[in-house]
């Protein structure tokens, strides 16, 4: 057995984001390769020491990554597309791009906010053991006195997450080649004296890959020259994959008992259950009694986390400002490790725990209160009310955030700048942004969001039921981290949040200024949420709060309100059969939040991404009057599918993810493509997303070109 307690993985960015700083310095040429490697080695050593000090039985290794564990796996297996091989540093080139070579595509790791790089696997991509990172980490730990269990992304998940090279077959066709490489890896680890290896197969929780998993682990399980195998699933139930894995020769199966629910002990067919009873996806303490009660059901069990602790912050002890009553309910990574250890001790002592009391959670009562007239009627009254020109030009909300603003916010938090002085700075910035937009000839203005650090954190700081942390960073991708707020109680809006700034901005100009809010799903998706009531109820409470803000903005005379919902897909259940139900209530929550606007008030939504069928479904469901989406990057590909689109549409004609300034002609070409499929009276002209990360010179030049292209096409 795996000495009764383990975790599936641990954060790696560093308790003070040491890896982030080192990586960014390395990319800028301020730090050498050897120094960067040393920062990594120090973080790994600190992790093993910490886990051992906390009393954990079996320590994982290879949970460190310089950028991403899926990219690590691709490099380990030599699955490097030809075009990156000549780069000075192929790993960094795949992660970040180099010499005009774009990086690999990046996408969400299942339903988390972590993003991985998508490997590209064609018919001829090599798949063979080419690296030794897991072996090096085993040696490194051993030198410090620790025997570890290397963690590697498993073959089925690796191939399911990869994309075919253009025109090539599905990467799953390469399963046999991949298995040969994994067999070599297992033999090499065995030769190194490794006792256990963990192969991560979270993709099995989506319902995919069952037959492939059976084939893969039949083959790997039958090898004579290998360490013992733990196949770890997480993020949901295994379903048919559980009996499939149990029928193979692997020694242990990791199951997410938090999200996936209990399993039938008989279905394990004598395998060791690595029981994920401590959640790696939230920041709450575990109900130890209920967990023990569950653990007692299985004859051969190791206490573990539901998934890697990568998705939670390091240590609650760093949060000295939190309300003590809330603190008492929280657990970050180190506290969760301590819970795993405590549970394993109690289990070993024969402690039984007690059955959980089932709480009757009242089904969310839904009052959509759709008080708005149908879209065509509203559109007519809005057109009269707003009196906008054809092809109105607008932006998505934020303007560049200057260092001066960030310094002012830090000074306010530190108490060296008082509230009135801070507000005067914000007002001055709003005025600057309004004047700039007037000068450029933009039709629908924004206040620029200078008062917001982040589109979710800002609202979390102003709503009841949310707490924010100081050091609670969680890796999003590469060196990027977010600090998700914590929803710990019923959500309420004690006072209007944005009305003051929107009203001020509107007082400066005759042109309409858009109110700017974040939607209920996005606020919840980018926070740690409660576990004691259903997700949909939490979203419903936030929707109530947004609804009050929409009502107050409209009452203050705001004629256009944009409610961003870029994370609409992020809470989508992993299993297809549950997705429709989710979309129905998520979209209903958005409608509830926005329908407190009158018919004259135009509702805009912004979705960041553009997947045509989803956009169409979402737009009809969301019932917004105008939708702005990403499209400049995909060369307007989405447009073909939006033929005859029935509402206002603003496909982004300026890719704000790049410092490049598009010329007026280029913008015009994109607009002409839009005008071929969407009637001119419904088309808006805008960038892809907020301008926060760009500089003023870039933004001014690009927006001037947007205005020029729009004006040229007006009657
Ligand atoms: N209104 C936000 C902004 O402009 C939208 C950001 C987003 O879509 N991610 O910054
Ligand atoms: Zn966006």
UniProtKB/TrEMBL annotation:
Name listed for the protein in its UniProt record: 5-methyltetrahydropteroyltriglutamate--homocysteine S-methyltransferase
Reported function: Catalyzes the transfer of a methyl group from 5-methyltetrahydrofolate to homocysteine resulting in methionine formation.
GO terms assigned for molecular function: 5-methyltetrahydropteroyltriglutamate-homocysteine S-methyltransferase activity
Domain Cobalamin-independent methionine synthase MetE N-terminal: 5-297
Coiled-coil zones: none
Annotated region (Disordered), positions in chain: 354-376
Keyword Zinc applies: yes
Entry similarity comment: Belongs to the vitamin-B12 independent methionine synthase family.
BP GO terms, sorted: methylation
Annotated EC: 2.1.1.14
Tagged with keyword Electron transport: no
PANTHER family assigned: 5-METHYLTETRAHYDROPTEROYLTRIGLUTAMATE--HOMOCYSTEINE METHYLTRANSFERASE
Keywords: Amino-acid biosynthesis, Metal-binding, Methionine biosynthesis, Methyltransferase, Repeat, Transferase, Zinc
Pfam name, any one: Meth_synt_1
Leading EC class: transferase
Cobalamin-independent methionine synthase MetE C-terminal/archaeal domain location: 391-711
């Amino acid at each position: 057995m795996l000495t009764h307690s383990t975790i599936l993985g641990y954060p790696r960015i560093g308790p003070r984001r040491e890896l982030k700083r080192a990586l960014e310095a390395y990319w800028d040429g301020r730090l050498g390769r050897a120094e960067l490697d040393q920062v990594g080695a120090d973080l790994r050593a600190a992790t093993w020491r910490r886990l051992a000090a906390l009393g954990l039985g079996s320590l994982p290794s290879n949970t460190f990554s310089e950028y991403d564990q899926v990219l690590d796996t691709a490099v380990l297996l030599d699955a490097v597309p030809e075009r990156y091989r000549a780069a000075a540093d192929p790993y960094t080139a795949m992660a970040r791009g180099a010499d005009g070579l774009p990086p690999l595509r990046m996408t969400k790791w299942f339903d988390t906010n972590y993003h991985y790089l998508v490997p590209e696997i064609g018919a001829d991509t090599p798949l063979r053991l080419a690296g030794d990172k897991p072996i090096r980490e085993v040696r490194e730990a051993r030198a410090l006195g620790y025997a570890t269990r290397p963690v590697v992304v498993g073959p089925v998940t690796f191939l399911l997450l990869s994309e075919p090279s253009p025109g090539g077959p599905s990467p799953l066709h390469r399963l046999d080649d991949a298995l040969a490489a994994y067999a070599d890896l297992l033999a090499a680890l065995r030769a190194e004296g490794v006792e256990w290896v963990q192969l991560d197969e979270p993709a099995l929780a989506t319902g995919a890959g069952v037959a492939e998993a059976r084939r893969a682990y039949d083959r790997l399980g039958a090898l004579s020259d290998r360490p013992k195998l733990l196949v770890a699933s997480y993020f949901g139930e295994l379903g048919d994959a559980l009996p499939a894995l149990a029928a193979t020769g692997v020694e242990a199966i990791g199951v997410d008992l938090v999200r996936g629910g209990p399993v039938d002990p008989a279905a394990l067919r004598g395998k060791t259950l690595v029981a994920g009873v401590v959640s790696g996806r939230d920041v709450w303490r575990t109900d130890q009694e209920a967990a023990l009660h569950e653990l007692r059901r299985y004859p051969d069990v190791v206490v573990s986390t539901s998934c890697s602790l990568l998705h939670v912050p390091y240590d609650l002890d760093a949060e000295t400002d939190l309300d003590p009553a809330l603190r008492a309910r929280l657990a970050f990574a180190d506290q969760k490790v301590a819970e795993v250890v405590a549970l394993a001790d109690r289990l070993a002592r024969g402690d039984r725990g007690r059955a959980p009391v089932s709480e009757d959670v009242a089904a969310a009562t839904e009052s959509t209160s759709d008080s708005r007239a149908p879209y065509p009627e509203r559109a007519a009254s809005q057109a009269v009310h707003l009196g906008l020109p054809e092809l109105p030009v607008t932006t998505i909300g934020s303007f560049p955030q200057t260092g001066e603003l960030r310094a002012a916010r830090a000074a306010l938090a530190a108490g060296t700048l008082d509230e009135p002085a801070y507000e005067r700075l914000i007002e001055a910035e709003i005025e600057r942004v309004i004047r700039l937009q007037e000068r450029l000839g933009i039709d629908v203005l924004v206040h620029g969001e200078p008062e917001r650090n982040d589109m979710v954190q800002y609202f979390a700081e102003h709503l009841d039921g949310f707490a924010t942390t100081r050091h609670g960073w969680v890796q999003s991708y590469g060196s990027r981290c977010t600090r998700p707020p914590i929803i710990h109680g019923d959500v309420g809006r004690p006072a209007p949040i944005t009305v003051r700034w929107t009203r001020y901005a509107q007082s400066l100009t005759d042109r309409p200024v858009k109110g700017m809010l974040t939607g209920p799903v996005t606020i919840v998706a980018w926070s740690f949420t409660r576990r004691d009531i259903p997700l949909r109820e939490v979203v419903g409470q936030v929707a109530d709060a947004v609804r009050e803000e929409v009502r107050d903005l409209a009452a203050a005379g705001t004629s256009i309100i944009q409610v961003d919902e870029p994370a609409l897909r992020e809470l989508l259940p992993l299993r297809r059969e549950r997705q429709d139900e989710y979309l129905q209530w998520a979209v209903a929550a958005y409608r509830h939040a926005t329908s407190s606007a009158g018919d004259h008030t135009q509702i805009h939504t912004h979705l960041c991404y553009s997947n045509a069928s989803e956009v169409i479904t979402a737009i009809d469901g969301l019932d917004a009057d105008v939708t702005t989406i990403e499209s400049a990057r995909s060369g307007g590909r989405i447009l073909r599918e939006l033929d005859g689109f029935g509402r206002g549409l603003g496909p982004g004609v300026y890719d704000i993810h790049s410092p490049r300034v598009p010329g007026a002609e280029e913008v015009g070409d994109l607009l002409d493509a839009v005008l071929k499929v969407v009637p001119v009276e419904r088309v808006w002209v805008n960038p892809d997303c907020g301008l926060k990360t760009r500089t003023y010179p870039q933004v001014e030049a690009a927006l001037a070109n947007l205005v020029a292209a729009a004006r040229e096409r007006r009657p």
